[in-house]
Amino acid sequence: MENITLVSELQYKAVRSSGAGGQNVNKVSSKVVLSFDLKKSKGLSDEEKALLEINLSSRLTDDLLLILNCDEDRSQLRNKEIVTKRFFELLKKGLFVPKPRKETKIPKAAIRKRIKNKKNISQLKQTRKKPDLD
């Protein structure tokens, strides 16, 4: 994954932010919408694209577009920085492959201890029974 290539593939669009803010909201386009085309990306290998398609399937559109919004700040530049940072964090999470779990054997001492404990409990319960007088 090359960050420089990926940054050049990102498309930004500034739109008017919704919500409270008075007259400023009506005239300033501070919300930033980032879109990234996973299919056309040259900064990612085919394996990385396939992995991202699986791991980010809920975030992708039908055309394999990733769309992120940010309207946290009143500054368009700051929103652009935030959404770009969020994009790279999302990519990092999407490309993470957990290492396979190694199955471990149960130690023989642990098995012996468990069986001994079962026998002790069984003996204890046997002593609680009423004696058999037949």
UniProtKB/TrEMBL annotation:
> Which GO terms fall under biological process for this protein?
rescue of stalled ribosome
This chain belongs to which protein, by name?
Aminoacyl-tRNA hydrolase
Pfam families membership: RF-1
Asked if the keyword Transit peptide belongs to this entry, the reply reads: no
Q: Indicate the enzyme's highest-level EC class.
A: hydrolase
Q: What EC designation does it have?
A: 3.1.1.29
| GO MF entry, a single one | translation release factor activity
Family as reported in the entry's similarity comment: Belongs to the prokaryotic/mitochondrial release factor family.
- The Prokaryotic-type class I peptide chain release factors domain covers which part of the protein? 16-32
Provide the taxonomic classification: Bacteria, Pseudomonadati, Bacteroidota, Flavobacteriia, Flavobacteriales
Matching NCBIfam families: PRK09256.1 (NF006718)
What UniProt keywords are attached to this protein's entry? Hydrolase
Classification via PANTHER family: PEPTIDYL-TRNA HYDROLASE ARFB
